[in-house]
């Protein structure tokens, strides 16, 4: 079967900027609901002053996120990625709506009953995050690194946007508890994510290109997404084609294989001969082998979030003392963290500033633990300016190192391996989040609780 190589090379870039923007929006939607809950911490502290809501809600959220991510990462090779991600975004929407309904139904009153209800919603957010974050990072890992960067930037942007909305609503309704509740309404943004992922993203040429490539390398996780784009899967991977898409997909797959064969000065002309000449084409490393080869990246991403979550948001919300900003102080600190976390995720786009050395990444990750004594002494003896500066650097380094690790680790692997590695790294990321949240309680030692 003949075709113009240049046409398929062009597909590798067609729709790239649209895909980058949608990846950013999907990343935003992955944490928008949860960040909306975090950024109204002053409201929940007002409603539930005895229950340490900032710490408890995060501690409830993380185990559900960790267990869900770990289970799905273990079964990654057999998981329908499309169904997984859609289920996560739909659960985000339903849970966000439930949070608003609960708040309105109880008329903004505190007590153990409403607090348990909020904790249940927090657990649902964690379950949704376990579906979406690992699924999306794994899916985007088999595409180009810029998609991962854009998705991770969207995660940070969700915190920045919700912080900005929270500051605006607090300024407009500071004397009204009803006004405080307005800061929690984020449910309908999740509907946009459901629509984009279900109907727009899979039909972009560049997305079809990379998913067809992954299918040619033996990936089963992309089958439903290819079908949504009018392409089913390879016969030898459990994947048949609809009539119009059959030739289209076969051509793409042969192109990928020919591209690889050119490096070895070998030529192929049809799908069956490719399979016969390269019987190892569909083989992939096991999760255990991938983890062994990338254990330093896994440790990096784990330690990055152990450190970050041992300080943010619990310590910043409850242990920074009393200052001139009053109830605005914690909101300003959280907003500054979110803004600089977002900025940090764009810094690696400047190639000369991107850290790719594996030893360098480990050294930078370990150096961040100096933040613990720095925050401790600043909270005791420093002023507001020093605390804001430290919080900004915490956010900047968190975003920067996260993108460096997640974009560099999948390089050089086949599509199915990149998907698996993305899932494994997110599992370590969320394990770090959970560990950091647990360690955050150590700040309360000697404070009577």
TrEMBL record:
It is a multi-pass membrane protein. The chain crosses the membrane at residues 17-36, 56-74, 86-105, 147-168, 180-200, 239-257, 297-316, 328-348, 360-379, 385-409, 421-444. The keyword Ubl conjugation does not apply. GO terms for molecular function: nucleoside transmembrane transporter activity. GO terms for cellular component: plasma membrane. InterPro entries: Eqnu_transpt (IPR002259). Keywords: Membrane, Transmembrane, Transmembrane helix, Transport. Its main location: membrane. The keyword Membrane applies. It is found in: Membrane. Belongs to the SLC29A/ENT transporter (TC 2.A.57) family. This is Major facilitator superfamily (MFS) profile domain-containing protein.
């Amino acid at each position: 079967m003949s075709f113009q190589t240049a046409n398929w090379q062009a597909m590798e870039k067609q729709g790239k900027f649209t895909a980058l923007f949608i990846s950013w929006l999907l990343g935003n939607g992955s944490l928008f609901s949860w960040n909306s809950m975090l950024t109204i911490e002053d409201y929940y502290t007002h409603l539930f002053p005895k229950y340490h809501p900032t710490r408890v809600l995060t501690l409830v959220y993380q185990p559900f996120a960790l267990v869900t991510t770990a289970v799905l990462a273990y079964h990654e090779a057999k998981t329908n990625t499309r169904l997984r991600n859609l289920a996560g975004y739909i659960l985000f929407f339903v849970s966000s709506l439930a949070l608003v309904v609960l708040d309105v139904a109880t008329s903004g009153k505190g007590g153990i009953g409403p607090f348990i209800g909020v904790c249940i919603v927090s657990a649902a957010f964690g379950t949704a995050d376990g579906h979406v974050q690992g699924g999306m990072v794994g899916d985007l890992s088999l595409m180009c690194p810029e998609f991962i960067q854009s998705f991770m930037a969207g995660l940070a942007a969700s915190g920045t946007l919700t912080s900005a909305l929270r500051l605006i609503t607090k300024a407009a309704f500071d004397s009204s508890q009803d006004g405080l509740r307005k800061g929690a309404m984020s449910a309908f943004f999740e509907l946009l994510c459901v629509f984009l992922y279900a109907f727009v993203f899979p039909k972009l040429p560049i997305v079809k290109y990379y998913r067809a490539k992954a299918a040619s390398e033996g990936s089963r996780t992309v089958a439903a997404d290819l079908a949504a784009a009018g392409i089913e899967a390879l016969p030898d991977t459990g994947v048949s084609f609809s009539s119009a898409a059959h030739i289209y997909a076969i051509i793409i797959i042969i192109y990928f294989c020919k591209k690889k064969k050119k490096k070895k000065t070998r030529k192929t002309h049809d799908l069956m001969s490719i399979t016969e000449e390269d019987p190892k084409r569909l083989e992939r490393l096991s999760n255990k082998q991938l983890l062994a080869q990338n254990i330093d990246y896994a440790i990096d991403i784990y330690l990055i979030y152990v450190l970050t979550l041992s300080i943010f948001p619990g310590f910043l919300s409850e242990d920074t003392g009393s200052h001139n900003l009053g109830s605005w102080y914690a909101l300003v600190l959280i907003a500054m963290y979110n803004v600089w976390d977002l900025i940090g995720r764009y810094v690696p786009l400047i190639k000369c500033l991107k850290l790719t050395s594996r030893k360098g990444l480990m050294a930078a990750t370990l150096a961040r633990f100096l933040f613990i004594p720095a925050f401790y002494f600043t909270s005791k003896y420093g002023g507001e300016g020093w605390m804001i500066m430290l919080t900004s650097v915490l956010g900047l380094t968190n975003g920067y190192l996260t993108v460096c690790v997640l974009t560099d680790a999948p390089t050089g692997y086949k599509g199915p391996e990149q998907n698996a590695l993305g899932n494994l790294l997110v599992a370590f990321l969320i394990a770090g989040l959970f560990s950091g949240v647990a360690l955050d309680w150590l700040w309360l030692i000697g404070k009577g609780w």
